[in-house]
């Protein structure tokens, strides 16, 4: 069984749960083998490289329609802390601390934004990041040529995200999108940003589902895991919390406060929030992620019944 999981702190309770869940060692090994950021797991799920996993809500639209999504998800009722929209001057905010008013509710840290992100991004697949950035070059160039005004330009996307990028457009936010442990560390250091979960709550008064456990196969098995997970109150051991805190550069008490803002059981209101989000995507003409194939394929050199041996990065 091939399982994919988002490598963020928001699924730390699921990591602890899987270790104690009565299942095969093979599955437990697989659960900790395929770990990456959401947009990459979305592609693995769409290509059926994994049988199931926590994927972005927007990528799970088809699974939701085909009833291949479980009742477990990553949900926030209000502020989520780890899905942010940086202000237009967010990149330079940390370098211009002296220009801010003393009355600001969030005091910016002393480190630069780049040094803040580098600690958490050191393990990210650089080749996948470069490929994802290259895919957006044409769209960025076209948007700049169409209208050079800052208000008309689309918000700067986070290559690790699909749902949050779409949510930023739905909420009409124009700042840089930042998600995951990098966003949490940015907030901990005093970075100034808009919490998308809070904006969604103030607008719709509904929880927002950022990710969902979906499956391509072994539906009964993963539905049982999801039901057991959402019913159990997971306590994170101190040594695991200390290890993750050291790896992320975030104090353990701050991680606990962060996890208190997240729950995992999709009830009726969460399902209404899902339908509201999917409806907003249709109204904004935002398409869900699809399979992305390598673009360096020379069709003239490919013969029938011969597998392509080029780059596998997507």
From TrEMBL:
GO terms for molecular function: hydro-lyase activity. It holds the Pfam family VitK2_biosynth. Keywords: Lyase, Menaquinone biosynthesis. InterPro entries: Menaquinone_biosynth, MqnA. SUPFAM superfamilies: Periplasmic binding protein-like II. Its EC number is 4.2.1.151. The keyword Aminoacyl-tRNA synthetase does not apply. It catalyses: chorismate = 3-[(1-carboxyvinyl)-oxy]benzoate + H2O. Catalyzes the dehydration of chorismate into 3-[(1-carboxyvinyl)oxy]benzoate, a step in the biosynthesis of menaquinone (MK, vitamin K2). This is Chorismate dehydratase.
């Amino acid at each position: 069984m091939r399982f994919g999981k988002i490598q963020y702190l928001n699924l730390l309770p699921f990591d602890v749960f899987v270790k104690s869940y009565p299942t095969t060692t093979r599955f437990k090994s697989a659960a900790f083998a395929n770990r990456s950021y959401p947009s990459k797991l979305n592609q693995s799920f769409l290509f059926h490289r994994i049988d199931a996993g926590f994927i972005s809500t927007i990528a799970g639209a088809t699974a939701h329609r085909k009833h291949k999504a479980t009742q477990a998800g990553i949900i926030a009722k209000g502020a989520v802390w780890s899905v942010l929209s940086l202000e237009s001057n967010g990149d330079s905010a940390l370098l211009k601390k002296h220009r801010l008013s003393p009355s600001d509710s969030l005091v910016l840290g002393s480190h630069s934004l780049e040094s803040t992100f580098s600690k958490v991004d050191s393990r990210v697949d650089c080749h996948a990041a470069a490929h994802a950035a290259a895919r957006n070059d044409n769209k960025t160039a076209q948007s700049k040529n169409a209208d050079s005004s800052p208000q008309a330009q689309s918000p700067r996307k986070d290559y690790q995200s699909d749902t949050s990028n779409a949510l930023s457009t739905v909420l009409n936010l124009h700042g840089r999108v930042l998600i995951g442990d990098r966003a949490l560390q940015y907030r901990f250091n005093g970075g100034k940003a808009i919490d998308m979960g809070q904006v969604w709550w103030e607008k719709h008064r509904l929880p927002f589902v950022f990710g969902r456990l979906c499956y391509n196969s072994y539906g009964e098995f993963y539905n049982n895991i999801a039901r057991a997970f959402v019913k159990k109150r997971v306590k994170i051991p101190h040594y695991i919390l200390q290890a993750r805190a050291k790896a992320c550069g975030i104090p353990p008490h701050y991680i606990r406060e962060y996890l208190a803002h997240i729950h995992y059981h999709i009830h009726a209101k969460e399902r209404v929030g899902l339908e509201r989000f999917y409806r907003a995507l249709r109204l904004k003409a935002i398409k869900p992620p699809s399979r992305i194939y390598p673009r360096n394929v020379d069709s003239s050199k490919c013969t029938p019944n011969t597998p392509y041996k080029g780059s596998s990065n997507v």
